[in-house]
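Let's practice the habit of predicting before peeking. Look at the sequence and jot down your guess about where helices and strands might fall. Then scroll down.
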Amino acid sequence: MGVSGCGKTRIGVEIAERLGLPFIEGDTLHPPGNVEKMSAGIPLADDDRWPWLDLVGAALRQANEEGRGLVVSCSALKESYRDRLRHAVGGSAVFIFLEGSRALLQARLAERGGHFFPPALLDSQFAALENPDGEKLVVTVDINAPVYSIVDAALEGLGTLSVAPAAGTKREAR
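Done guessing? Here is the structure:
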């Protein structure tokens, strides 16, 4: 979880691979109207996000009912959004908050191409972001590091929460 450009997809894919779990890119679940708004530089309102979060929650619920884990990239900027996802799986959702400075994220977005989210919307995401400090089942990871270090820190945090193995998940720098 985190604002655009924090690495949700890249880190999520790596975590899913290292844990042997499926991965879903949450952006692919956005209704077309949401994508159109963001592409036009219009920030989403809560009423835009609820149907999307319900689709993300449905994917999580299905995996939970099938007794399997799932990694999903999702901004989950507000506590109410995270609570909605938690509710979808009976409270067992775990969040990895990929935290970085505005300057770092602006630089990343400026370099990123081929995504519907324009860099100009970053400020609206920071304005909406409610830091998950103090929430249960949240691992916070500083993203000002190489990908492998971010993934290692996330997996270590998951191991501390006793929701994923910490041992044997480290990977050499590539």
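How did you do? The mean pLDDT is 90.
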